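User: My collaborator and I are trying to settle a disagreement about how two of our proteins should look. Neither of us wants to argue from intuition anymore, so we agreed to look at predicted structures for both before our next call. Could you fold the first one, then the second, and keep them clearly separated?

Assistant: That sounds like a sensible way to settle it. I'll keep them separate. The first protein:
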Amino acid sequence: MMSRFEHFPHDADIGVRGFGARKSDAFEQAALALSAIVTDPSAVSPSVRVEVECEAPSDQLLLADWLNRLIYEMAVRHMLFGRYEVAIEGGRLRGQAWGEKLDPSRHAPAVEPKGATLTELRVGPCGEGWVAQCVIDV
């Protein structure tokens, strides 16, 4: 399965969905979908690396926690991310996000994500790979 992401409509919020051959790939693509709500991820220079760790009792809650930690890092560091790497072992995720400081004139941010919700939260097999999705409050 080829890794990719997409958005799906949900009232006033935005759904993010990541696909990948492995669960970790789907989590990376869901994070890219999160970034793509704000700006084009390919326009973000991967000059600064931020490490993120989280733990949860289920894959679904792990996805929500991962995305919420990324939203937190974007907010407190005034950064955008355009590249992600995830390793998942049991209920523990170790991730890295690469990005740069937000430059409104260059990144033209569309919206500010407020949080990953439990709405339409899903992590599981999909075809020959995995899907990871949830709705982001904007």
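The second protein, kept apart from the first:
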Amino acid sequence: MAEKSEEARARAETKFKQQGQRSREAEEARADSAAKARAVDEKTARLKAQRLARDAADAAAQEQQPAEPKGRPAKPSGGHAAKGQRKRQPPLIGNPDEVKGG
């Protein structure tokens, strides 16, 4: 009977050690996750500050530049319409009865 109680004690100690190991690993994982989250937050704050500084500098530069003269835009070279501004073709109609007013 003493052997059974020693075996039970050994199993209990093993189980206790495994639980302790798992709890330490879980704590390390939580700490690692928190550190990563802090790093992301710091990077986000740094990038936001850079973006705001850039936008402020752009706004200041925009105020210092003279306004561009308003007028007719220059024609594209060669007298051709720029790509995307070509004259659109009318839709093809297969049946003259489908024409409005026809």
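Some points you might bring to the call about the second protein. The mean pLDDT is 83. The two ends are 109 Å apart (CA to CA).
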